[in-house]
Amino acid sequence: MRPEQTSLVYLHIAVLLFGGTALFSKLINLSALDITVYRTAVAFVVLAALLKLSGKQLRLASARDYLIAVLLGIVVGLHWVTYFAGMQMAGIATGIIAFFTYPVITVFLEPLFTKQRIKSKDIFSALIVLFGIYLLIPEASIGNQVTLGIITGVFSAALFATRNLLQKRFFATYSGPHTMFYQTLTACVMLAAFVEVEPSALPSQDVYYILLAGAVFTAIPHALFASSLKHLSATTAGLISCLQPLYGTLLAFMLLAEKPTIMTLLGGLLVISAACFETWSITRKKPHASIRASGCQR
Asked: What is the CA radius of gyration of the chain?
């Protein structure tokens, strides 16, 4: 195959694996925080090995970069906890759709980091997303688990958008795996003190799932995604990344028998359409905006 075709295959595999990450919110019988700690610990070790095997240096260029890496790790750690918590409460399909509000949230947060102004099309996208989320909500009460899960998923999206903008502004010179090496380490260390189930008390089945989540569904897709960007445009990467909710929903249906409702599908269609539109708008004007547009640095 040509390099472009190989890269496209790598990208689809990476997006499929990223979408499959959501399954572990249900497969692993632990709290969202515990899942995050153990997943990041495994991912950190595997990413370190991948970087060493590829001959890349682990050190950062300056003391300032280490401080930025810690800040990014704190934000992404909170994002991961809320990401898994949202899906545990609302279900995988609904949770991942709520999370995919992040491209529109990004547009509204970006003026805090740059001089770019919000345009009327962005406001229209936001209204579409709000209506899509409205269709997902079963009742307007945070006492409802699904509603609380959706709110948590949207908050996770806001954290993810914030991390992406901070990373693009202050940490863009480093590769995806290099960045995630420090972010997984920081998230693991930050949250480890709050773990409820000690490593020695983990059921063997959960240990297998944690290893799978950290290595196959975190470290490897980051390496594949970074590799695919060498021959693909940010627009292609960003739009294909919007398939994550589809992949996640299909995997949840096939492996966990989670069947989305009609309202979930309609709301998801609106949210993902708005996400794809904003991603396309971003990347067609900014060819190098891959980190922000892709949404795959998870």
From this structure: 18
Q: Which residue has the higher pLDDT, 174 or 196?
A: 196
Q: Assess whether pLDDT exceeds 90 at residue 57.
A: no
List the one residue out of 81, 136, 127 whose CA is nearest residue 104: 127
CA 74 – CA 187 distance, rounded (Å)? 6
Please state whether the predicted TM-score (pTM) of the whole model is above 0.70: yes
Share of the chain above pLDDT 70, in %: 94
pLDDT for the residue 98: 94
Is residue 72 within 8 Å of residue 190, measured between CB atoms? no
Tell me if 129 sits within 8 A of 270, measured CB to CB. Answer: yes
Long-range contacts of 288-293 (CB under 8 A, 24+ apart): 288/234, 289/168, 289/234, 290/229, 290/234, 290/237, 290/238, 291/164, 291/167, 291/168, 291/172, 291/176, 292/106, 292/164, 292/165, 292/168, 293/103, 293/234, 293/235, 293/237, 293/238, 293/241
3-state secondary structure of 171: coil
pLDDT class for 281, splitting at 50, 70, 90? confident
d(CA 293, CA 298): 13
**Lowest model confidence (mean pLDDT) among 24-28, 140-144, 180-184, 256-260:** 140-144
Q: How large is the angle between the packed helices 176-192 and 32-53, nearest 10 degrees?
A: 140
- 91: left (phi > 0), else alpha (psi -120 to 50), else beta? left
DSSP states of 177-208 as a string?
Answer: HHHHHHHHHHHHHHHHTT-SS-GGG--HHHHH
